Amino acid sequence: MRRRTLTAATALAVLFSSVTLVAAGAGPAAADSSALLPLKSTGDMVVDGVHQRVFISDPTAGQVVVTDYAGKVVSTVGSLPGVHGLELSPDSGTLYAAVHDADAVVAIDTATATESRRFSTGAGAGPAYVALAGGKLWFSYGASGNGNIGSLDPSAADPGLTLNQDTGRTFYEAPILDASPGAAGTLVAGAPGQSPVVLAVYDVSSGTASRTAYAFDPGSTGGGNLRDLAVTPDGKDVVTASGAPYYQAVYKLPDLSADGKYVTNTYPNAVDIAPNGDVAAGTFSWYDPDVHVFKPGVSMPLRQYDFPNTGNSSGADTLAPAGLAWAPDESRLFAISQNDSDVYSLRVLDAPTKASTTLTVNAAASATRAKPLTLTGALSSSTAFPAGTKVSVTRTDDESPSGKALGTATVAADGSYSFTDTPPAGGKVTYTVTYAGDGDHAGATATHALTVAKTTTALTLNNNGKVYDYGSDVTFTAHLGTTYKNRTVEIWADPYGSDKPNALVKKGTVNADGNLSATVHLTRDAKVTAKFTGDTRYAAKSVTNSVYTKVKVSTSLSGAYKTATAWNQKYAYFHQSKDPVLNTTMSMYPGRKYQLQVQRYTDGAWHTTATEYFALDRYGKDTVALDDTPPIGPRFRIRSSYIDPTSGDNVNTTTYGSWKYFVFTR
Hints:
Layout: H1 8-23, E1 33-37, E2 45-48, E3 53-58, E4 63-68, E5 73-77, E6 83-88, E7 94-99, E8 104-109, E9 114-120, E10 129-133, E11 136-141, E12 148-152, E13 176-180, E14 183-190, E15 198-203, E16 210-216, E17 224-231, E18 237-244, E19 247-252, E20 258-263, E21 268-273, E22 279-283, E23 291-294, E24 303-305, E25 318-326, E26 332-338, E27 344-350, E28 357-362, E29 366-368, E30 373-381, E31 390-396, E32 404-410, E33 416-421, E34 427-435, E35 444-453, E36 459-461, E37 467-468, E38 472-480, E39 488-495, E40 503-509, E41 515-522, E42 526-532, E43 541-549, E44 553-558, E45 562-566, E46 569-575, E47 581-586, E48 593-602, E49 605-615, E50 621-625, E51 635-642, E52 655-656, E53 660-665
Parallel strand pairs: 29-35, 37-43, 46-53
Antiparallel strand pairs: 1-27, 2-3, 3-4, 4-5, 6-7, 7-8, 8-9, 10-11, 11-12, 13-14, 14-15, 15-16, 17-18, 18-19, 19-20, 21-22, 22-23, 23-24, 25-26, 26-27, 28-30, 30-33, 31-32, 31-34, 34-35, 36-38, 38-41, 39-40, 39-42, 42-43, 44-47, 45-46, 47-50, 48-49, 48-51, 51-52, 51-53
Protein name: Ig-like domain repeat protein
Organism: Streptomyces venetus
Signal peptide: 1-23
């Protein structure tokens, strides 16, 4: 199966390596991750800590897939039909693979991921599982009533292949094998998939397997469907994973008497043990946690992992049988998951031996800039935190987009903490609270985002509501009040009418008095806007004024035989037989009309006798003849005007033309 412990020299090297990493500065644990695997099936998995590689056998595809610690595939060893059990040499230099359909055990160089030697196990032997013990490589083989155990010496020129080592004919088919340096001359075997469970222990110290213990339904649990087993590093126990009962059972070596349990949930199917004795137990569970981590001898899990659902069924992804393996330094636990579409993933579980930690942070959804804001929250775990535990607080805002460390808060005995900050910037502000973790607890991070109201500044603009003559150049002055860093103001002019866009007239920094001026040429009514885009502390603001512009209008009378001043006005004189003609010119806009108004002076006042609208041509001109038979003697006057909006549009303000006075004579 798989080598779960390291030699003393390798263990010390790993220990010193991890100490160096801690001394360099420990931070929050890295997030768990996953990567897709190019597998058709799974058989076994081992982890090489020296080269930081993960080896996974794929019986259906006849290959061993090699990944790095992030799950990235770095190599594939092919031509291994039916490859199943794997075992790593003590120095991590060689991987041994049981290649069932080739009747061989293959040695793979772990540094190059290439086959280095092939050992034939004899025609029809079909090895299934491998384990190193007593100076030899042991393999199980056979099926349909012919399960047995064989051995060979992979370091010898003549491997000395020996079959039929289990003279008691213990197993119906090739058993699962495992061994431990803590019991160097002991080999443990279990019948895969059988109900009830059948286990056996062998003394292999002499180079020959001698069965020393046998158990049919060990512990009288009625358990069955054995999927995996692992011998503890100290060689005192074997831990099994079978479909039932719903825990990983522990049995003593060498007599296989019950020695406790690791409580999981439905359908245990995997177990692996770290060099320090921590136990990773796996279950086939659609709706419950899939991976359970235990401290040695503690029956309740320290930590559990529940896979997400990456498929199309209602249940989540499940753990592959025997799909767990520790990194030798216990920094990671590797798990193979499978969804309902038979897509496999390698899940990298970081800091698995540390208790999971929950961190919360709470604050108001909104706050006011430059006012104190209090964050509260709680840090919790299944194991107690030491007194004086702290969490660090970072604020991210427009002034500190990369985050600004604010300090730490001490966690109280009940797990609560509080932290007060005065946010200097407005807008979106995110607080990140981090617990770095310790030797017993995984790190954790919590965030809270809120909206901080910016301070409002003053912004004014002159000339609101004023009326100007057509073509006037008018100066508009914006005044900006107190701000933080931005002192830029924009002045925009938006003439009435859909054919003229809103346009930036001027953009610039206000002067020492806070003023910025711009001149606008007015030919239409307009909305003039001053804009301040805001800064990190003061809110954006705009103010819009409406100003009104008269049309340009001129009129003249033609056809008079003379003009003269009378009644303090200039009058045009027309013969009664001559029709006066009014000529009008007005600034043009599509569809524009003008109002023609005629008045007569009677009883000491002017009275309107006619009002009518006439359309201007595309040049803004029109001519109207008064073709009636007028009375002789009374005074008349006439004018052309633009009336908003009855003149057909609203782009200018109402403008009355000048009166033209006239009388009729014989």
